[in-house]
């Protein structure tokens, strides 16, 4: 009886932990933006190289689109730079400056 209750209690605790949603914070946004910046810069370079090599305007458009995406990633990086060290008020001020 006590062993069954113990097993049921552990199962309930595990179920509660597995259903608890992970909260994402500024550090997570920063890490995703770093990955996004790396990928978009690589795609920009590849598109630019293909455009120059084949004189393709479509590849140039692809490269320029990725260039714009990279600028967006830089803005997000700037917004969340120093997350955990910088105050929330400073992060909010950065966000207001970044709004266009």
**How big a fraction of the residues is strand?**
under 5%
Tally of helical runs? 4
Please give the alpha-carbon distance between the first and last residues. 64 Å
Structural class: mainly alpha
Q: Would you kindly provide a written description of the structure presented here, covering whatever features stand out?
A:
This protein is mostly helical. It is 82% helix and 0% strand. It has helices at 2-19, 26-54, 57-80, 88-98. Helix 2 packs antiparallel against helix 3 (57-80) and helix 3 packs antiparallel against helix 4 (88-98). The longest helix has 29 residues, at 26-54. The radius of gyration is 23 Å and the shape is elongated. The mean pLDDT is 82.
Describe how the helices and strands are arranged:
Blueprint: H1 2-19, H2 26-54, H3 57-80, H4 88-98
Helix pairs in contact: 2-3, 3-4
Features:
100 residues; mainly alpha; 4 helices
Provide a brief overview of the structure:
Helices cover 82% and strands 0% of the residues. By secondary structure, the protein is an all-alpha fold. Helix 2 packs antiparallel against helix 3 (57-80) and helix 3 (57-80) runs antiparallel to helix 4.
